[in-house]
Fold this protein.
Amino acid sequence: MDIIEKDIPYLDNNMPNVHKHKTPIPKRPHILRPYYCMIASGCAGSGKTTIVCKAIRNSEEAGYKCPITGKDCEIVSYLFSPSAENNPIFTTLKSLEDDRMITEFTLEKLEEVVDHIKAEGQAYKKYIAYCEAYARWSKMTLKQIEQSQDYEMFEILGEHGFKHPDELPEQTAKVFNLIFDDLIADKNVFSTKKNSLLNKLVLNRRHVKVNIYICTQNLKSCPKIVRENANVWCIYPCKNLKVIEDDIYPQFSNLLSPQEFLAMFQYATTQMHDCFTFDATEPSPEDRFKINLDTIIRLKN
């Protein structure tokens, strides 16, 4: 059967220019790019907590820069885990201070942390708005100021008496991480209800501006809405591949056939404590499949 094409001269399929939200920029390539949800799945002792800590340490060592000011971002991590005090791997994280290691999970505590993250984001947003307003105002002539109808600019500057930004307490852009470890059986955390706090957090992580790390021994116990919206996967060897094929493979079915996926998964998990990683935050699709976080794997042409 022959197929012919006829262009419609006044229509095209070009993408429109849209304003994209700016996110912190890794200072080295192949570092996870905010804002993501990472799921590490494997049996006890497989290495899933280690891979989560390694991902965070990689970002700590590389650093992020603010896309607006170009200055370094501060990385801040929170851990929710009943076994936190018994797992020394968490002490390797520079961004995780003792008072942010939460061993007794409550929804109220998680809400408190999320509210703090939102407040920090709003404070930094206001600081940047003030700096930008001051930069505009300082370049204007007296006549331009008198004729200006930029009332928002005057309102912003009036909050601090038109002070130079250097006279204000400096705000630092922050990259927040939330780690959930050994909590998969807690229904207060992993609820099947779509409006549960964690589910909403995964769906709205770009708005809240937070990275989420989830460790689980049983993928099925992780709500489907979370599995379908995760964009970084670290999967250790398992006998039942059905949930992987159903929930993970569709995310890159445009890149691999089912047979190719299975071959790459088995190749990546040959060695003990190695996992198959799919990292959708990588800009280049050919770099998204890895062994652990440090070895890119590709199919031979």
